[in-house]
Write a structure and sequence with these properties.
The chain has 15 helices and 17 strands. The protein is of the alpha/beta class.
Length: about 525
């Protein structure tokens, strides 16, 4: 019996019980109170090269296992000492075998002394647990990324809403028909931007639910290119880039809104990742298709990132290190929209030289045209006649509408799109009595810009912060810096009250939110 693991040692083992143990898929070992092996079934001998033999002392078996390296052990000597000390105690542990499988070892004491030890192969269970953990972590990371995206979308939505609110307030008091007409057009532009943003949010939800149905029409690409030029011109200029659109002739047949979403993501990415040079948007004919290409002279995409850049929430290492990098949704939306439209998307890139993102669209045959954009400028006196104010706001439309509102109140507005422009104005001798700064500027916070301007002015110039980010920690950080804050969209009456307090009653500044 000793050779086949059926010896009894110091225990008397029933033959029927032994026969039952031998057919178990898990390994079983029974150790007597004399710490010698009384029984080991066939499954254990198949599982372990170092399986014990009947009559072998537990200490000798454990020593062989520690020296064999059949189990992946951090410290074999420490493990051996613990095993010898824990003989007969109830415990369970998982071990990784050298072959990569996972074995659960569970020992239990028996009534007359000694112990039984069960050996189970739990490799598949552990792999499933690991897969579930990875899926859970991925889901949590996805939820967090989506939350960040929604916060950013909320901020972007508040910008045109703030412009619209100010324009409505100003328009109600404007007598000039020409100026009212310009204001109404600006309201229309702001409303269209809001509509686009809300549509994008809805689009993401619908994409996730598979509910978007393309509405294919034929239209001129020139109209779409004009909208993209207006949308991205300022961003390109801020980075010193040339943004050029080669207007094509003819029409295409596709869903106009979805194609604009694809191209706007391409152009936004091209500007974001191009530091020097230009971004060119043009077309080339391919049979009955028109391939629309966005060409940049940026950093390019590494070979290992070519496919992954289209994954949801994926950002290359360089982008993750950026201060205001994207959230990794744009190109994923592009891929899904292109698949929905059955428009092939292509990426060609060379690291250090640039990239070409493109989408192929069917040619159409019906002309379609829309009106272009207009700019607004007006000068109307208001209540704070002659008071010089420095406005720092990086959103073009909001900066124009805020400037217009303040000018209606008689304020002499010095408007800046970023910190550098604001500091330059201050250094050139512009003297102001108040600073109004947006919080979420492109490179610095409004609080930091106010501090920089005060240093240039050499005085604690009254200042306020306006922000679309209503998170408590953001508002608390602004107030901790000693600055009052208004949340966008800013109500003109509230703005007027706060400005009045800062200028004429600085000891009683209250934010009417």
């Amino acid at each position: 019996m000793a050779d086949d693991g059926r010896g009894t040692g110091a225990l008397t083992l029933d033959a029927t019980v032994l026969a039952g143990l031998d057919v178990l898929p898990d390994g079983v070992a029974i150790w007597g109170e004399d710490r010698r092996l009384a029984y080991a079934n066939g499954a254990l001998r198949r599982m372990l090269d170092t399986a014990p033999v009947v009559g072998e002392a537990f200490e000798a078996f454990a020593g062989r296992v520690a020296q064999s390296r059949e189990l992946t052990l951090m410290d074999p000597d420490e493990w051996l000492a613990a095993e010898i000390a824990d003989f007969g105690k109830e415990k369970s542990a998982d071990y990784v075998l050298a072959a990569g499988s996972v074995m659960k070892v569970t020992q239990r004491p028996i009534r007359d002394g000694g112990m039984t030890v069960a050996y189970a192969d739990v490799t598949s269970i552990k792999r499933n647990e690991q897969a579930l953990r990875a899926a859970k972590e991925t889901a949590e990371a996805t939820d967090e990324a989506k939350s960040r995206f929604l916060r950013a979308a909320n901020h972007d939505l508040r910008q045109p809403l703030a412009s619209l609110k100010i324009l409505v307030y100003s328009c109600m008091r404007e007598e000039s028909e020409q100026i009212r007409s310009e204001m109404l057009h600006a309201m229309s532009v702001a409303a269209l931007i809001m509509e686009d943003l809300l549509g994008a949010l809805l689009q993401i939800g619908q994409l996730d639910a598979g509910r978007i149905q393309p509405r294919v029409t034929s239209f001129q690409l020139s109209q779409l290119f004009e909208r993209l030029a207006i949308q991205f011109r300022h961003q390109a200029e801020e980075k010193g880039l040339k943004l050029r659109f080669v207007i094509p002739r003819g029409t295409v047949a596709t869903d106009r809104a979805l194609l604009e979403r694809i191209l706007s993501n391409f152009v936004a990415n091209a500007i974001r990742f191009t530091e020097v040079g230009a971004v060119l948007v043009g077309c080339r004919k391919e049979g009955r298709m028109l391939r629309i290409e966005v060409v940049d002279t940026g950093r390019g995409v590494k070979d290992e990132d070519r496919e992954r850049v289209f994954d949801e929430f994926y950002r290359a290492a360089e982008e993750r290190r950026g201060q205001k990098s994207g959230l990794g949704l744009g190109l994923n939306i592009v891929r899904r929209l292109a698949a929905l439209l059955e428009h092939p998307v292509r990426l060609r890139s060379e690291v250090g030289r640039g990239s070409i993102f493109s989408v192929a669209v069917p040619l159409g045959n019906v002309w379609h045209s829309e009106g272009g954009e207009m700019e607004i400028s007006e000068t109307v006196a208001g209540e704070f006649a002659g008071v010089p104010v420095l406005l720092v706001e990086d959103d073009d439309i909001l900066r124009r509408s805020m400037t217009q509102l303040l000018q209606r109140w008689g304020i002499a507005v010095h408007a800046a799109a970023d910190e550098a422009e604001a500091v330059r104005l201050a250094a050139e001798g512009v003297s102001v009595r108040m600073i109004v700064a947006d919080f979420n500027l492109k490179s610095r916070t409004g609080v930091e810009v106010v501090q920089a301007l005060r240093a240039v002015f050499g005085a604690e110039t009254p200042a306020m912060i306006v922000t679309a980010d209503a998170e408590p920690r953001v508002l608390a950080s602004i107030r901790e810096a000693g600055l009052p804050v208004l949340i966008k969209p800013v109500s003109p009456p509230r703005l007027r009250v706060l400005m009045h307090n800062l200028l004429f009653e600085p000891g009683q500044v209250a934010v009417p939110n």
